[in-house]
Design a protein that fits this description.
The complex is a heterodimer of chains A (about 190) and B (about 750). Chain A is about 15% helix and about 20% strand. Chain A is built from five helices and ten strands, in the order E-H-E-E-H-E-E-H-E-E-H-H-E-E-E. Chain B is about 30% helix and about 15% strand. In chain B, the strands form six sheets. In chain B, strands 5-4-17-16-15-6-7-14 form an eight-stranded mixed sheet, with helices on both faces. Chain B has a six-stranded mixed barrel with strand order 22-26-23-25-24-27. The longest helix of chain B has 19 residues. The radius of gyration of chain B is 26 Å and the shape is globular. In chain B, about 60% of the residues are buried. Chains A and B meet through helix 1, strand 2, helix 3, strand 6 and helix 5 of A and helix 1, helix 2, strand 3, helix 3 and helix 8 of B. Strand 10 of chain A pairs parallel with strand 10 of chain B.
């Protein structure tokens, strides 16, 4: 397999602090209402404690990105390291990518009337820096991995709640949250 | 694909986030937003200090927070582009929190107060832009007329609180207000006084081990503290301890985010933490696991404490009091006593109770009797202030104008001796009550670094008192619920627009904050505003204010340094900090030498000082006050705000769009409430309308709302809080006990 950078989301460590999501806004200043990364609480049938376990998700930089396939003007490219880049100069704002991505990654910028999405901070990666969201994580719950080298039997590709779109092969891996031993009070 | 997307949403997302998710996809709602992106997605400003056209400056987060992050701020062409944590701090390791990363939006928020403003009709929203000259003139005229009519300035009050912890903000208190004469000050802390006093009774000081030393612990009890939200950078040290084999236990009435990350979570009844600690202590005695060697060498009063435990405390009693099964109490106690080292981090929530100080003393005692005080990886951790020995300039240089008349404290005035005047000190935790009974009456109030209407209890009474003032001056960056009641608001700078210096009450780091952009619009630092008032006062009435009239904010910052700060931090000058933050050169283990600052020089299980202040000499358990309404209401911190700050920003609203009240499923069922219903939380003090979220993270008898201030939303938890005070706080906080804000009661009904 050729190089494919991916996000690793360790929900066992994740404290749902939203630092990753805001660090992204801090770096790129998307319009209010536009979020390239969001921290999603898991529903109670996945994790029994409401709003206490999370998946931090952005663009999954899929092996076969549907955004790239459906873009009529070639605004999307896939780099050799697997990062899916959106070129806003080429974008005509048709919304095909926004509608086609089952993971909701491309966002519509209402001001520029164009699409935009997580770039995995490729400029930072090229400068040997971590993406803003990864640097922001206080507990190393969010990491960048290279799937061509990644070998972790415990890591999940499609954990509960994360939709399975095998044809896209999203570049993200997960670790599930663990429950504490809970001693409730009597009375 | 639309159908599949919906399936993803329903499987993954909660109802609330699903709505915002769908809204986000349609993205229509954002069209009217004002702020153009400072960076397009492509225009990333680079990594090195000057790469990408950006220049980096050292900054320090000013908020009242454990983490007080050392930051780097990247500026291009006079515009703050982005911020990050300073990796030179091993505490933050280059990170900030969700609030810290929102700073660029805070600075350039369209909602910033841009100019001095005057409100025609208090609370009407009829604001008029005025010049700084007109604003300062109005203020000075009023001060002079109060002085002329009353013969003194006790009718002039200051409420400068902790909204900005930058050291130079003391210019308003120590400088301007002292320079004007004897005035009235709202004092005391809304935060930690009960536990603070408790630690002073036990140790003679409040000092914590370096939080980075948590990684060395073999057993950690996170007692009423939620660092996953309120000190996110400490979590990695807790995780490090876990990875080395430590067990982490969380004790909290609410299943917090921290609880979800622990090995074990105990949910005692609210306000029974003292009973739990004492029950554990008794079991440790019974098993012969007390560290008698340490206690004999280092402590006073252990025999009396032991006798109290044997006569008054059993594990079974603790089980009944707390609701935690006896076998669990016994097991945790045994684990804690056997793990070496073991530590307890005592949060500020559990001491905001009418028995809160005693609870902290009980936990201190548990840690001490197991010999975990003065140990690497041990300690009863609460906070520290040894890094705070600044000058608080111009504290020592200021005195009121000659002939000033002030408050006469009958307790301090000796018959036959010259009259001793002082400022009048009122407890901000009972602000409404204190204002109502104040004689002479408070006529003018100056509020800075504070939003009392969203932070102080008994809000409806507070508003009545504020409306009765002759003049309310508010210095702020946003039109808070307090500013809404002002006659004059003065725009103030963010930390990026001024010089500051900051330390934490938790970690040991010191960070400078360089001014990196020019003040936005007409905003001015507190130091400058104070000087303007002083200057005008002297023009109108020479000699009427002794505060400086022309010191730059940077010079003011420099004057706050002294040899104590230099020596402690291993620097020769403030300029050394321009290279990066520094950590105090101090043993990371508190009390390692076994010398305590109590009257006996020992750790005091038996404290005569406590008895002197009207408390039991031993850490005895007393029950909290009884409920006065159906539910307990808890109003802790949210991760999306620092008290009432940040929550109003549009960037923050993207992740935290509206307030809610959490209700247990059984309670919700009994009230016919489902998630998403609008409900009324009410009691005899007031009410608040809010959306319900049903969750068993809160117990059946509890309602939980986060303290917050949302823009364009009347939501305010303070409406339903009374002004009950904690047991302790009067020893070290100017006679003012702490608030009992986590011991409050209300009912709820569907609207």
């Amino acid at each position: 397999m050729s190089k494919q950078l991916a996000f690793y989301v360790d929900s066992q460590k994740c404290i749902g602090c939203f630092s990753c999501a805001m660090a992204c806004k801090n770096m790129y200043h998307p319009e209010p209402g536009v979020k390239w990364r969001q921290v999603y609480p898991l529903s109670e049938d996945i994790y029994p404690h409401h709003e206490r376990a999370f998946y931090s998700l952005a663009c999954n930089h899929c092996e076969h990105p549907t955004c790239l396939e459906c873009c009529p003007v070639g605004a999307y490219t896939k780099r050799e390291d697997g990062i899916v880049v959106h070129d806003q100069d080429k974008c005509i704002g048709c919304g095909n990518c926004v509608r086609s991505c089952p993971y909701g990654a491309p966002q519509y910028n209402p001001k520029l009337k164009k699409a935009e999405k997580c770039s995995m901070c490729w400029e930072r990666i090229d400068a040997k820096l971590e993406p803003a969201c990864v640097q922001a994580c206080p507990v190393k719950a969010l990491r960048i991995i290279d799937l061509s080298e990644f070998d972790d039997a415990e890591a999940l590709h499609y954990p509960p709640g994360f939709p399975r779109f095998e044809s896209l092969n999203p570049s993200v891996r997960f670790k599930l949250p663990r429950h504490p031993h809970v001693v409730r009070r009597n009375g | 694909m639309e159908k599949e997307r919906k399936s993803m949403n329903s499987s993954l997302l909660s109802e609330m986030s699903r709505r915002s998710f769908v809204k986000l996809l349609t993205a229509g709602g954002a069209a009217a937003m004002l702020h153009g992106g400072l960076l397009t997605p492509k225009a990333f400003a680079g990594p090195a200090k000057t790469a990408g056209g950006c220049k980096a400056f050292h900054s320090a987060c000013q908020r009242n927070c454990y983490d007080t992050c050392a930051m780097l701020s990247y500026v291009d062409d006079g515009v703050l582009k982005y911020v990050e944590g300073d990796k030179q701090s091993t505490f933050t390791n280059g990170g900030l929190c969700v609030k810290g990363y929102s700073y660029p939006r805070r600075v350039y928020s369209p909602d910033r107060i841009k100019y001095p403003m005057k409100q025609i009709g208090r609370g009407t929203g009829n604001w008029k832009r005025i010049s700084w000259e007109e604003a300062i003139d109005s203020i000075c005229d009023k001060i002079l007329s109060i002085k002329k009519e009353d013969g003194h300035l006790l009718g002039l009050a200051l409420d400068k609180n902790s909204g900005s912890e930058g050291i130079t903000n003391c210019a308003v208190i120590q400088g301007l207000f002292t320079g004007l004469g004897y005035t009235t000050r709202f004092e005391g802390s809304n935060c930690w006084p009960a536990g603070y006093d408790a630690q002073y009774f036990d140790f003679g000081d409040m000092v914590c081990n370096d939080p980075e030393d948590l990684a060395n612990a073999g057993y950690i009890i996170l007692w009423g503290v939620n660092p996953a939200w309120t000190s996110i950078h400490t979590m990695k040290f807790i995780y490090a301890a876990k990875e080395r084999g430590a067990k982490v236990v969380c004790i909290d009435p609410v299943l917090t985010q921290t609880a979800a990350k622990c090995d074990e979570y105990l949910a005692p009844k609210m306000g029974t933490d003292g009973a739990l600690a004492l029950g554990m202590a008794r079991h440790i005695l019974d098993l012969g696991l007390a560290d008698r060697g340490w206690v004999a060498d280092n402590a006073l009063g252990f025999p009396e404490f032991e006798q109290y435990l044997r006569e008054k405390v059993t594990v079974q009693w603790a089980a009944e009091e707390t609701g935690i099964p006896a076998e669990t109490i016994a097991r945790i106690a045994e684990e804690f006593a056997k793990a070496k080292p073991a530590t307890a981090w005592i949060g500020y929530g559990l001491q905001r109770h009418t028995n809160g100080g005693r609870a902290v003393r009980s936990i201190d005692a548990l840690v001490a009797m197991t010999g975990n005080v003065g140990k690497k990886g041990g300690g009863a951790r609460y906070g520290q202030e040894f890094t705070w020995d600044f000058e608080y300039w111009p504290k020592s240089k200021m005195s009121p104008p000659a002939g000033s008349i002030g408050f006469v404290n009958p307790a301090k005035q000796k018959p036959g001796e010259p009259t001793v005047y002082s400022n009048r000190s009122l407890n901000r935790n009972q602000a409404a009550r204190e204002m109502r009974k104040a004689d002479p009456k408070i006529r003018m109030l100056w509020v800075s670094c504070s939003n009392p209407m969203s932070q102080y209890p008994n809000r409806n009474e507070m508003e009545k008192m504020y409306r009765g003032l002759d003049m309310l001056v508010v210095v702020d960056q946003f039109f808070t619920q307090t500013a809404e009641l002002a006659d004059i608001v003065l725009p103030t700078t963010t930390q990026f627009e001024e010089w500051q210096v900051n330390v934490s009450y938790w970690h040991y780091w010191l960070a400078i904050n360089e001014q990196c952009i020019e003040p936005l619009f007409e905003a001015k630092p507190n130091t400058v505003i104070s000087a303007l008032v002083s200057k005008r006062m002297n023009e109108l009435s020479p000699g009427s204010c002794t505060y400086q009239q022309d010191l730059t904010p940077k010079e003011c910052m420099i004057r706050n340094f002294n040899d104590t700060i230099h020596k402690l931090n291993g620097i020769s000058s403030w300029e050394d900090l321009l290279k990066g933050p520094v950590k105090a050169k101090r043993n990371p283990v508190s009390w390692a030498e076994g010398k305590f600052k109590t009257p006996s020089g020992k750790y005091e299980f038996l404290s005569a000082k406590a008895a002197e202040y009207g408390h039991p000499a031993l850490p005895e358990y007393h029950s909290r006050r009884p409920n006065h309404d159906k539910f307990v209401i808890l109003t802790p911190h949210t991760k999306f705000g620092l008290h009432s700050q940040f929550i109003n920003l549009d960037w923050m609203r993207d992740f935290n769009p509206e307030p809610c009240v959490y209700i247990n499923p059984n309670s919700a069922r009994s009230k016919n409430i489902v998630s998403g219903d609008m409900v009324r939380v009410y009691n005899k003090f007031g009410e608040v309308a809010v959306k319900a979220q049903v969750t068993d993270n809160v117990p059946e008898d509890t309602l939980l709302m986060y303290e917050a201030w949302f823009k364009n939303d009347k939501f305010n938890v303070q409406n339903v809080l009374d002004d009950a005070v904690a047991d302790m706080g009067a020893y070290q906080f100017g006679g003012h006990r702490g608030p009992a804000i986590q011991e409050q009661f209300a009912n709820v009904e569907k609207m």
